[in-house]
């Protein structure tokens, strides 16, 4: 009983170790252009497209451009926009408090300095996360880089405001449109706005109101410009066969940082506008025009961040399935065409390992054949001579061929079968076979043949040295004998290659 328990435990441990050693085989599929060489082993690009029967199979998709093409693999649409959800608004915090202050001298300088210190601490924290070696996700790192740029931009804006306030004496009017004035000065204006929009060094509420209203107009132009830049970039990449990964990462970071800055500007101008009822009403009308544009910008940037730059199809387990090859069909449809004709290519990944059983039929040569004789008269007796029929006899037959799957053009196997000779004699065959080809396969055979043959009785000599009395009819005394010989064969495999679609 104890020995049985030990044997069971050892078998269990061995089974676990065997399973632990099985690794997923990954092939890289280049979607840039469907060609014969687009599918490669991810580890060794020069190796054949072969997979072991026990290995799960997965595909890494590279160089795809879902902005231009729709990709269908084995009749299933591949969705490239399934990455981690991202909303640029999540990166926007409160950037400025309510500046509704009186005309009394207030220590705004100290407040601004404190805000700058807080933002500098946030910047250090984000930089530490970016430099964390355990951060492997490309998308997460891109989000942090965008957040870093937004914080730096916010610090620069606060420092400009601090500089402007430092230039004012305590006896002067305290402007309530510093943020708006900075936006006007920092924004690249078109020719029309340059002529009608200028920042004023506010000395009273009228000047503050003008700055805030001008900043609202500039803000609308900035949103329009960003939307145009994004649309132009999307149009550009929609004309390319595959995306440049580095360029996309840089572009989406720039768009994201610019968008976050604009959202912060809405907050800043809104805080200043809230000090004046009539200005706030005008600001709300302007933001109502901005909101649809902002939503489109947000959706497009979120889509860029959801794009999976490295896309993997789920692993497929083929262990235990009686298949010879995993077939992968790739179709690429141009989204810009009304009725596109797809670029299509089919790849075959051959399975290695496991037993393969085929049936083939064809032509055979066997050394096992009936003997034939002729006689010559010697008075009342006859001499007996053996006819020379050659060394082999033709026959037609079929074999069962057992071999190991190897994914190669030539592989050995065992053959068992039967044939019928031209004399309609049945023979059993066993021997070796060499299977040539992958799909339309020919088999070469050689081995042992077995069966019954007709020959003259051993009591008679067939060299003409002795004459025999064969009676009035001259009938030869023939006997049936089970005997062994050898054979050669050339057959064609009747079975078709057993394929499995990658997703089935």
Quick structural summary:
This protein has 504 residues and is of the alpha+beta class.
Structure notes:
With 504 residues, the protein is an alpha+beta fold. The chain has helices at residues 2-20, 108-130, 138-166, 178-186, 191-196, 205-237, 245-273, 277-306, and strands spanning 25-30, 39-41, 50-52, 57-62, 69-73, 76-77, 311-316, 325-334, 343-352, 355-366, 373-378, 381-386, 393-404, 410-421, 426-436, 442-456, 463-468, 478-493, 499-501. The strands form 4 sheets. Strands 3, 5, 6, 8, 9 and 19 form a 6-stranded mixed beta sheet that branches. A hairpin with a 5-residue loop joins strand 13 and strand 14. Helix 2 packs antiparallel against helix 3, helix 6 runs antiparallel to helix 7 (245-273) and helix 7 runs antiparallel to helix 8 (277-306). The protein starts with a helix and ends with a strand. Mean pLDDT is 78; it is low at 12-20 and 94-106.
Number of distinct beta strands: 19
Q: From N to C, what is the helix and strand string?
A: HEEEEEEHHHHHHHEEEEEEEEEEEEE
Helical content band: 25-40%
Task: Please state the overall shape, judged from the principal axes of the Cα atoms.
Answer: rod-shaped
**What's the mean pLDDT score?**
78
Instruction: Please summarize the sheet with the most strands.
Output: 6 strands, mixed
What is the CA-based Rg, rounded?
Answer: 43 Å
Q: Give the structural class.
A: alpha+beta
Strand content: 25-35%
Uncertain spans? 12-20, 94-106
Total of DSSP H or I helical runs spanning 4+ residues? 8
